[in-house]
Design a protein that fits this description.
Layout: H1 3-17, H2 28-31, E1 36-41, E2 47-53, E3 60-64, H3 75-83, E4 87-91, H4 107-122, E5 132-137, H5 139-149, E6 156-160, H6 166-176, H7 181-196, H8 200-203, H9 205-208, E7 216-221, H10 229-237, E8 244-249, H11 263-277
Parallel strand pairs: 3-4, 3-5, 5-6, 6-7, 7-8
Antiparallel strand pairs: 1-2, 2-4
Helix pairs in contact: 4-5
Length: 282
């Protein structure tokens, strides 16, 4: 392949892999939610936009959306958490919603943005050591596992519809495009690793989950055809000594039609995790 064709192939590949930007369509007031719009810095001089929903002091849940989504799409989960007394911080990752553009999106950059959200939270009065929970969906779920694996100040992690390994996600994407794995698909995977600056093995949830030092709830839809339930089972099997639980429930990848029925179990998990961290009876 000549240099010109290779450059064109790389350009087309990056366009194909780019996350679509979905606009935030309504304000918190229009949604009937109490809160405020906030902005805070992230890596590479970019700024993220989010919503701060104050609760009643139970702790804070930081929510990281998935690929091509935005903070507004996570409101159906944020709203009942706020009603249960939790502060909620939702934000748009770079290249998503109202946040700044950057050269590309990747799961490690989602993790960087999650840590930027935590830095903003920790800088607020009274929040330096307050309980914090990370919750993410899909790529956002993999990102919160990566972020949590690097920290010891997280009370719990909730992973919704996470993949087990980026390699498997990329192979499914290649198959959907009708591209053979050898030699083209193999080259694509190595090129993506070079662009994002990380080896897939190093950032895979099956690698990061065993390094997380707080309770983790893995939630996955039995009817998910984007990331198959087998990924959740593989991820759970990799947990090592991390106190993780796997909960398979009816539903597809976005879980939006089924998560409300699971809220009592989710809230009970959060309460038990934070009670354990505080050394109290669950």
């Amino acid at each position: 392949m000549g240099a010109g064709l290779l450059t064109l192939f790389h350009r087309r590949l990056r366009v194909s892999l780019a996350a679509p930007r979905v606009a935030v369509t309504a304000s918190l007031e229009a949604h009937g939610v109490v809160g405020e719009t906030v902005t805070f810095p992230t890596r590479r001089g970019r700024t993220l936009t989010g919503w701060w929903l104050p609760g009643e002091g139970r702790g804070t849940v930081v929510i990281t959306h998935g690929w091509g989504a935005n903070r507004e799409l996570m409101l159906p989960l944020a709203r009942p958490l706020q009603a249960a007394g939790w502060n909620v911080l939702l934000f748009d990752a770079r290249n998503h919603g109202d946040s700044d553009a950057d050269t590309f999106s990747s799961m490690p950059r989602f993790a960087e943005d999650t840590e930027a959200a935590l830095a903003w939270l920790r800088a607020r009065p009274g929040m330096a050591e307050a309980p914090a929970v990370l919750l993410g969906h899909s790529v956002g779920a993999a990102a919160v596992l990566l972020a949590a694996s690097r920290r010891d100040d997280i009370g719990a992690v909730v992973s919704l519809s996470a993949f087990a390994h980026p390699d498997g996600m990329m192979r499914r994407w290649l198959a959907g495009k009708g591209l053979p794995f050898f030699p083209l698909g193999w080259y694509v995977l190595r090129y993506v690793e070079r662009v994002i600056g990380h080896r897939f093995d190093a950032i895979a949830p099956v690698t990061t989950l065993p390094r997380v030092r707080c309770p983790v709830l893995l939630v996955h839809g039995r009817d998910d055809r984007v990331i198959l339930p087998e990924d959740a089972e593989r991820l759970f099997a990799s947990r090592g000594e991390t106190p993780a639980r796997l909960h398979l429930l009816p539903g597809d990848h976005d879980l939006s039609r089924h998560i409300e029925a699971e809220l009592p179990e989710l809230l009970a998990f959060l309460e038990a995790a934070l009670a354990e961290r505080a050394g109290e009876p669950a």
